[in-house]
Recover the amino acids of this structure.
């Protein structure tokens, strides 16, 4: 009995100590009440932590910062309830889906300052005409990363990667919409097409890419590319930015008519502190903060004035801040109906099984 | 003899297989290169960034707080449950034991989703309390399974003897049953502790506004590529688990000798 008692007392002491430490650390952040706290639900590693500190100092709001790893995870958390996030950061098609289902608050544009600083070509996107529900946070494209050491004639268009010279040398990101976008775009179809004939043609052509595909992977692509192990990969510009920073042989190409993606700030209907949410949006819209964030995260900022504050090497990198003519035909993903989502998934799955 | 060396070689192979990934991870915690592709030089920088990241440290403290608290409560509840279960007879016992085992084999995703639905149904705000409750819940069956066999094995004449000598039920419990069950209880606690520490699936569903654990945080960093800071953290947690195991053996060895001497005297 004594042993057990000692053991219990020991564990209790540890619990009290840990509880005390946690409380002290939270108190150092400032005491949070319903009126002064702001809960942000963002992707992991998607904001410069120094900006959160700065925001707390400037506005007096205390930030609860939570993270998620996919749009779907974030969506189910918000939809299921039991939580009250004040700011969420969904991507394009998810904004449309959440807005349709009434999960997002309609933004009052009179309360938002600095929207005019954003690149006009990035405002009014197809998934949220008039930016009623979202303010752009980061953006980028889907493209091809190649290793100049291995690839002598770098691809310029989607069509190029079908060339037999790239036999067994392409890594694809395991994502339905992105793989389909690649081939739909090659044929000149819309990336959001709901035309069965177009989809079938695209699928037949996708099968012809099989000999060139080395693997369909997730985040491991970055390591393979950085280690000079594979000549080509189809990735997002955000991932490409990280790879090219690690390995100077790697270059990013934006093919014609590719996907343009956005991650956006939005306020869920279940938000508790809407005032703080607007304060945060306005804070992130300030050019200086947008620039600092873009430099830390490494993705492209939509904020034109913020972009001007970035170092020349980043600002003038055409891969990550392409001119308007390069991306004028690019399309953002729209939310597909469950039926068409099923069709896309089936075609993609068949392609994967054929691989 | 030949059989012996073969056995040893096999064991070595299995151990290498089990530990290689962990040591690989820890090795790169000291890499100056910034990622796990190439070892370019020794540095403690990753540990410095880890300790400077107050948000991550807070999450670590919260995770351990949760693990200790939930497994302690689960141990108390589970031990009482195990003692009660042994006393039961026939169908009722079979049923309850069966239900207990179902919870152990049911997938975490199912448990997590059910808890999420339950909590939102009763209108509970997700946060520390919801995570704590679900961790206690999935730990209880483990504790029951660790404690119950020991009690079943126990020589019941010890209890009879205590009764004959005039001990009250409370005394029997305190002086005979609990000391006998101590190794099982402590083993149950540590099992529950490990489960709570590395659970992702259940925790992911029930975390809310102001509480998160290491596993959920690490998972959400996948999109941007996990930094070596996490390797440094894993190295520390691994070291901590080794201390826990050493502590566990120390307690066990002691309680064994105490158990023996008390049965002799």
């Amino acid at each position: 009995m004594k042993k057990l008692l000692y053991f219990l007392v020991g564990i209790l002491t540890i619990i009290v100590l840990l509880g005390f430490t946690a409380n002290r650390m939270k108190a150092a952040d400032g005491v949070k009440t319903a009126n002064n706290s702001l809960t942000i639900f963002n992707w992991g590693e998607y904001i410069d932590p120094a900006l959160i500190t700065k925001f707390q100092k400037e506005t007096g709001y205390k930030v609860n910062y939570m993270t998620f790893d996919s749009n779907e995870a974030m969506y189910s958390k918000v939809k299921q309830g039991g939580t009250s996030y004040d700011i969420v950061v969904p991507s394009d098609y998810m904004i449309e889906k959440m807005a349709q289902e009434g999960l997002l608050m309609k933004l009052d544009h009179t309360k938002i300052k600095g929207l005019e600083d954003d690149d006009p070509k990035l405002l009014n996107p197809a998934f949220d005409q008039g930016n009623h529900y979202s303010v752009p946070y980061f953006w980028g494209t889907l493209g091809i990363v190649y290793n100049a050491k291995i690839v002598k004639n770098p691809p310029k268009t989607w069509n190029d990667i079908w060339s037999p010279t790239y036999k067994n040398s392409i890594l694809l990101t395991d994502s339905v919409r992105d793989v389909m976008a690649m081939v739909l775009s090659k044929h000149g179809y819309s990336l959001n097409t709901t035309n069965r004939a177009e989809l079938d043609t695209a699928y037949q052509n996708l099968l012809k890419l099989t000999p060139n595909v080395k693997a369909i992977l997730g985040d491991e692509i970055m390591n393979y590319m950085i280690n000079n192990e594979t000549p080509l990969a189809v990735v997002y510009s955000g991932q490409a930015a990280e790879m090219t920073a690690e390995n100077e042989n790697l270059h990013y190409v934006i093919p014609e008519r590719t996907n343009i993606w956005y991650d956006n700030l939005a306020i869920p209907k279940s938000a508790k502190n809407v005032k703080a949410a607007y304060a945060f949006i306005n804070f992130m819209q300030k050019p200086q903060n947008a620039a600092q964030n873009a430099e830390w995260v490494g993705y492209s900022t939509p904020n034109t004035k913020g972009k001007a504050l970035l170092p020349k090497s980043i600002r003038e990198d055409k891969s990550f801040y392409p001119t308007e003519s390069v991306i004028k035909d690019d399309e953002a993903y729209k939310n597909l109906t469950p039926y068409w989502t099923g069709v896309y998934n089936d075609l993609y799955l068949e392609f994967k099984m054929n691989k | 003899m030949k059989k012996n060396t073969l056995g040893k070689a096999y064991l070595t192979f299995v151990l290498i297989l089990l530990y290689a990934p962990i040591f690989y991870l820890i090795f790169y915690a000291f890499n100056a290169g910034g990622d796990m592709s190439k070892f370019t030089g020794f540095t403690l920088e990753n540990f410095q960034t880890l300790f400077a990241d107050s948000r991550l440290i807070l999450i670590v403290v919260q995770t351990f707080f949760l693990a200790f608290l939930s497994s302690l409560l689960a141990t108390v509840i589970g031990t009482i449950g195990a003692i009660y279960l042994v006393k039961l007879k026939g169908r009722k016992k079979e049923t309850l034991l069966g239900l207990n085992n179902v919870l152990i084999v049911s997938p975490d995703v199912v448990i997590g989703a059910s808890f999420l639905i339950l909590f939102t149904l009763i209108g509970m705000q997700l946060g520390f309390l919801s995570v704590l409750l679900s961790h206690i819940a999935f730990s209880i069956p483990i504790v029951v399974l660790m404690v119950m066999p020991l009690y079943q094995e126990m020589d019941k004449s010890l209890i009879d003897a205590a009764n004959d000598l005039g001990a009250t039920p409370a005394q029997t419990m305190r002086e005979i049953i609990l000391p006998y069950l101590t190794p099982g209880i402590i083993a149950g606690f540590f099992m529950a502790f490990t489960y709570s520490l590395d659970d992702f699936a259940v925790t992911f569903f029930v975390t809310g506004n102001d509480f998160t654990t290491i596993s959920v945080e690490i998972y959400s960093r996948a999109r941007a590529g996990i930094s070596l800071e996490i390797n440094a953290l894993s190295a520390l947690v691994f070291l901590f688990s080794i201390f826990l195991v050493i502590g566990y053996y120390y307690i066990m060895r002691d309680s064994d000798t105490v158990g023996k001497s008390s049965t002799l005297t």
